[in-house]
Amino acid sequence: MDRGKRNFLKIAGLTGVGAYVGLKGVQAIGNKGTKAKKKLALVIDTRKCKGDCPDCITACHREHNVAERHNPNFKGPGPKAAQGIKWIWVSTFAGAFHEQIHERTGKRKEPVVVLCNHCDDPPCTRVCPTGATWKRKEDGIVTIDMHRCIGCRFCMAACPYGSRSFNFSDPRRSLKAVKPGFPTRTTGVVEKCNFCVERLGEGLLPACVTACTKKAMHFGDLNDKNSPASKALMGVHSITRKPILGTGPEVYYVL
Ligand code: SF4
Ligand code: SF4
Question: For ligand 2, is residue 87 a contact (CB within 6 Å)?
């Protein structure tokens, strides 16, 4: 880590109060949520997906060289589980939608697949002091430039969905195989789902959507009424996570 990064982290991490003040302070200079031309969205049909197969997770994590969820090489402080890196994972229904459950949904046993929501108005991008994460104007994808990430983890604190992971130790050590063409990460950077932006550029669908054998995932531009995502939402009841926060999640769940 270079001296600039070290100094910044020292200053930001001095006290809890210091970190709080830092968070408030950087809001003024961080990126603001922007209205994107395209509104890329992922629709997960929970009538078909019961969160009981690993296909989407395996495909995503292989595609993006995501380290094993529980890093066996981790030797630092804190629980091992906290070292897990995840782009897409499963949560209990009540955990994902705890403010929306009622007598019937509360009894739902099946887990649901969760990931970064590529929010319309993402709080994570506003707090980044280096502009390393932002919402793309052209398609609404919330992206990260890992070279500019200084590992302050303000974005992780700001995300109300736990969608970002931090590399406490070298993720390359727990990779069984490296997929050429997608960058591996280093210690001290944050990562998360990128809506497979690199695949979209090649005219492909996100890896999770392609891997889903139950055809429960639909991806596309909600500004285009003929896109698979728009069609999947038509005439059905769908919900998003924590709508009360006003972040405008672009991952929808059909019930
Ligand atoms: S889910 Fe979290 S990380 Fe993803 S865009 Fe929303 S606030 Fe940011
Ligand atoms: S859209 Fe791509 S990066 Fe995001 S969860 Fe699916 S496979 Fe992973």
Answer: yes
Number of domains the chain is built from: 1
* pLDDT tens digit sequence for 116-167: 999 999 999 999 999 999 999 999 999 999 999 999 999 999 999 999 999 9
Instruction: Quickly tell me which residue has 């926060």 as its tokens.
Output: 245
255, two tokens: 């019930």
- Distance (Å, whole) CA 180 – CA 175: 13
Regarding the beta carbon of 167 and ligand 1, being less than 6 Å apart is answered: no
The Cα–Cα gap between 204 and 210 comes to 9
> In Å, how far are 69, 98, 169, 248 from 6, measured between CA atoms?
27, 38, 16, 34
State the residue range of the domain holding 117.
Answer: 3-254
Residue nearest to atom 2 of ligand 2 (CA): 196
* CA gap 101, 139 in Å, rounded: 31
Tell me, what CATH number does 212's domain have?
3.30.70.20
3-state secondary structure (DSSP) of residue 89: strand
Which residues pair with residue 190 across a beta bridge? 166
pTM for the structure as a whole: 0.84
Q: 28 alpha carbon to ligand 2 midpoint, in Å?
A: 30
